[in-house]
Amino acid sequence: MTFDKFFVRRIFMSLFGVIICAISVGAFKLAALGVDPFQSFMAGMDALIPISFGTLYTIVNIILLAFSLIFYRRNIGLATFINMFLLGYITQYSYEFFMKIFPEPSMVFRFAALIIAVVVICFGSAFYMTANLGVSTYDSVAITLVEKWHLWKFKYIRICTDLVCVIAGCVIFVIAGHEIKEIPTIAGIGTIITAFFMGPLIDFFNNKIAIPFLNKGKQENYNPEEQL
Fold first, then answer.
1. Computed from CA positions of residues 104, 19, 35, 116, in that sequence, does the dihedral angle turn out positive or negative?
2. What does the alpha-carbon distance between residue 226 and residue 228 come to, in Å, rounded to a whole number?
3. Which end of the chain is more exposed for a tag (fewer CB within 10 A), N or C?
4. What average pLDDT does range 197-203 have in this prediction?
5. Which of 40, 17, 23, 43 is nearest to 190 (CA)?
6. What is the DSSP secondary-structure string of 119-156?
7. Global pTM?
8. Helices 53-71 and 78-101, packing angle to 10 deg
């Protein structure tokens, strides 16, 4: 495989990964049992600001992108922009589509949707991450704090940024007029599951599917971790 074809494959993986992740976030929203930390923050913002979710997601990510461009551009790439301009809108339309098909999902159905969403988002993330064409603007914030300013180890910084997102999302959600008892719909069991199971599942899909797909037809295997 020539370099150009290899690069095209990486672009395809980034695009495919973002689309799959966006659809899964729509399923998370349908389940209404909690989403990942950044989406918890976005759910709070979505409840407060009267514009479409896709547009809101793009605006928030442009602000985060500005932070990264000013302080640490190393992790910004093509996939960053694919994520920034596509994920929010695909999530919005996926959720609207799911709600038309399943307007009143039962609790059992919501749990099933949650489990499927977790598996699907890990599958999509594996392709997106293995392509190694840049990280999301939210991921870039934690990386900047670690690699540029050396504040702490990444895993601890990421825990802090995730906690800030969840707390801020819940506070904004309540300020927007929702009751405290509704908070588990944006920061609940789904948030806990993503915290504990996304890492191992992404690693599984990386090794079993994404990396073999990327290296298919290449004489010399490509390891994305060596490029970081």
1. positive
2. 6
3. C
4. 88
5. 40
6. HHHHHHHHHHHHHTS---HHHHHHHHHHHTT--S-HHH
7. 0.88
8. 160
